[in-house]
Amino acid sequence: MSFSQPSSHSFVVYTMMTRGILYILIATLSFAVMNILVKDISSLPALQVVFFRAFGTFVFIFPYMVYKKISIVGHQPKFLVLRGVVGIISLATFFMAIQRIPLGSAISIRYLGPIFGAMLAAYFLKEKINKGQWFSFAIAFLGVIILKGFDLRIDFISLGLALISAVTVGMVFVLIRFLGAREHYLTIINYFMVISMLVGICSFPFWEMPVGREWFSLASIGIFGLIGQVFMTRAFQLEEASVLAPFKYMELIYALIMGFFFFGETYQLLAFAGIAMILTGMLLNVFAKNRTKKIQ
Hints:
The protein is an all-alpha fold. The chain has one domain. 80% of the residues lie in helices and 0% in strands. Helix 1 packs parallel to helix 11, helix 2 runs antiparallel to helix 8 and helix 4 packs antiparallel against helix 11. The longest helix has 33 residues. 44% of the residues are buried.
């Protein structure tokens, strides 16, 4: 009996898949660390934190864009500006929520973003939503209701901030899908960073002077945000979105672990069940959507 050796093509595909999954795990870990740092400086205004988050990325990607002669203005400036404005609203409200409620709760509620994105894409981009997805949406929304009902640390203002962040994340998804075939991904990111910095500067009168390790946290937020974006982008360049999507939710696992060790955040059983339902709903949404694609 003879065993055939794997072809070089199969080896390359396997290697790319492994690297893609590794990169998505690094990206989600980087974003989780960034979120921990944001919560660590809850005394500083969210828009001030947003400025340093954007500046830390801008100082790296803008010179690279100039060097590579990547378009700064782009071909769809109106939609690029809209993506930037929607993105800053999403990021600012998310940071505000992180500063007010447990990290895992804020991230869980923000995970509703793909649901709103799917609904908006169905209306604006005429993308279809199948029955399996609607079922997954219902599970996720029920999870939010349970989480809010049994985690008394989540007040209605914090819930509202997290939901606004989720809705605007959905809007960002739709805008990126629209701009994806028309603009370089760095042009899209750069618009977001520039607009975030401008909004942050406008809030300068409300800034507070960082002290001690807050300076380190502010600088690190930009660095870890950049690492997350770079590895996330590379991951989706190496592997199909359907393979990577479930690993994106590792960010929540990281957040629950880090929130416990750094801030002593714990959850009652029913509140934790709500988080689990949100995560389950989002994963079912991925599987339901992928199943429809395979059938088509």
